[in-house]
TrEMBL record:
This is Enoyl reductase (ER) domain-containing protein. Signal peptide: none annotated. GO terms for molecular function: oxidoreductase activity. Residues 15-347 form the Enoyl reductase (ER) domain. InterPro entries: ADH-like_C, ADH-like_N, ER, GroES-like_sf, NAD(P)-bd_dom_sf, Zinc_ADH-like. It holds the Pfam family ADH_zinc_N. It comes from Aspergillus tubingensis. SMART domains: PKS_ER.
Length: 352
């Protein structure tokens, strides 16, 4: 295809909100970079929460929105050997996060937050910030991996001495994208999986994915001890993917085993809820004798490991059935904000 010179893109500005810009010049293709045609982008709760001023972390002043996506390489700059035109790729979220621990410098290279994101027809990104997309996935499926799936992978496999293994017990919460990805990875790895949710319909979905036990947190708000009782000898869980926030963390601490891992994922509660919920006390943390870690997505190495695992086990992400066109991004974000949906909300950018 001819090399494009301009792109349409969705830009978030703190003063004007989300707006569509058209015929924006595409940056020159420099050494080590790839020119991408973006096919689909999935949306994240944190993005719209920042836009609405409801997230504990401040959003960007002005950036191209979006952090997830799948694209085809159109052209490569000098020095790029890992990719060639025609390759299908996904971006990593923190564009300089190659391997090892997260640093403030790495955190300052997040798509849609500190650098321009993926909600555009064409983009120029560093080859080192890309991975090849799983070959068995559709565009819409592959577009969901960058944030939610890598986060789930990091939560289960990110600590080298506590990596999930067959026979371990895993607890996760709800039917959001991170939780569903964690369920799929844990089941494929041979773990026993327990999930908390709120409805019979969602429980049926979780059971269809291989979940052994589902607990309704609305019927049993103090579910920590009930979940722990399901594990052999009532010892508790090796891994807990903590997605509920400050209120559910207390239950997660009740359910974790000695030397287990509680991975804190995201900030799904609004500021008012956090401010009005009693905090966890020092004894509650100390007397669990477990590791409580916060994490923010994951590295390129982890993304590549996850892709290999997904291809080996033919794992397909859960994608919401409703489709949104590129020009319908505002409505798509509102759908994310309203909640209640299952599977990732995906915006179709191009059909090529």
């Amino acid at each position: 295809m001819p090399i494009p010179r301009t792109t349409s893109q969705w830009v978030y500005d703190q003063s004007t909100g989300l707006e569509l810009e058209e015929r924006v010049p595409i940056p020159e293709l420099e050494q080590g970079n790839c020119l991408l045609q973006i096919h689909a982008v999935s949306l994240n709760y944190g993005e719209i929460a920042r836009m609405k001023g409801k997230y504990p972390q401040e959003g960007p002043q002005r950036r191209v929105a979006g952090g997830d996506g799948v694209a085809t390489v159109i052209a490569t700059g000098s020095g790029v050997t890992e990719f060639q035109a025609g390759d299908r790729v996904c971006p990593i979220w923190q564009q300089t996060y190659q391997t090892g621990p997260l640093t403030p410098e790495i955190e300052n290279t997040a798509l849609g937050l500190t650098i321009d994101g993926t909600l555009r027809e064409y983009a120029v990104l560093a080859a080192s910030g890309l991975v090849k997309a799983p070959t068995h996935l559709t565009h819409r499926e592959a577009a969901t991996l960058t944030c939610a799936a890598v986060t789930a992978w990091n939560g289960l496999f990110g600590l080298s001495d506590r990596r999930l293994k067959a026979g371990d017990w895993v607890l996760t919460q709800g039917t959001g994208a991170v939780s569903l990805a964690a369920v799929q990875f844990a089941v494929a790895a041979g773990a026993h999986v327990v999930v908390t949710t709120s409805t019979t319909e969602k429980a049926k979905l979780l059971k269809s994915l291989g979940v052994e036990h589902v607990l309704n947190y609305r019927e049993n708000p103090s579910w920590g001890e009930s979940a722990k009782a399901l594990t052999p000898g009532g010892r508790g869980f090796h891994h807990i993917i903590e997605l509920g926030g400050q209120r559910s963390l207390r239950e997660s601490l009740q359910a974790v085993r000695f030397e287990g891992v509680v991975s804190l994922i995201g900030l799904m509660e609004e500021l008012e809820t956090i401010q009005n919920t009693p905090g966890i006390t020092f004894p509650e943390l100390f007397l669990r004798y477990a590791t409580v870690r916060s994490l923010h997505v994951g590295s390129r190495q982890q993304f590549q490991e996850m892709v290999d695992f997904m291809e080996q086990h033919a794992i397909r992400p859960v994608v919401n059935e409703e489709e949104f066109k590129f020009e319908d991004c505002i409505q798509a974000y509102e759908k994310v904000w309203e909640g209640g949906h299952t599977g990732k909300i995906v915006v179709n950018v191009s059909s090529a």
